[in-house]
Amino acid sequence: MATLLATIGTLAAVTVLTRLRRGEVIALRAAGVPGRTQARSRLLETLVLGAGALPVGLAVGLVVAVVTMPTLVRLSVVGLADYASPLRLDAPALAAGLVLAALGTLLAAVGSARRVRVQHADTEHREETR
């Protein structure tokens, strides 16, 4: 569930940033940068940021789990007040989450690149009338 929410958040953020950066596409078009080059650049930018965010998210998630989960389990499950079992990693679930997160990032990157190509081809848009 958390991976799904993170993927939706990533898609929303990339969509908003693509719209906000439309002026950049227009300026680069005016400077002679082809739409294909701009789209490839935005694709790589999103993939690199996603590749950096995944390990950071894993590390922060691990720290939060180690700090909060034992207490939450003891306080919320009747009869486990003295329970002190260490956390265990569910490798298949982690792998599935990572695959889904990577696919979500790839989907966001491809969508952003496509939108940049469309923005580049739109010669009717006037940034100053926004």
UniProtKB/TrEMBL annotation:
Q: Which UniProt keywords apply?
A: Cell membrane, Membrane, Transmembrane, Transmembrane helix
Q: How does it sit in the membrane?
A: Multi-pass membrane protein
Q: In this protein, which residues make up the domain named ABC3 transporter permease C-terminal?
A: 2-117
Q: Which Pfam families match?
A: FtsX (PF02687)
Give the subcellular location. Answer: Cell membrane
Membrane-spanning segments: 46-73, 93-110
GO cellular component terms, alphabetically, are: plasma membrane
UniProt key word Membrane: yes
Provide the protein name.
ABC3 transporter permease C-terminal domain-containing protein
Please tell me the species this chain comes from. Answer: Litorihabitans aurantiacus
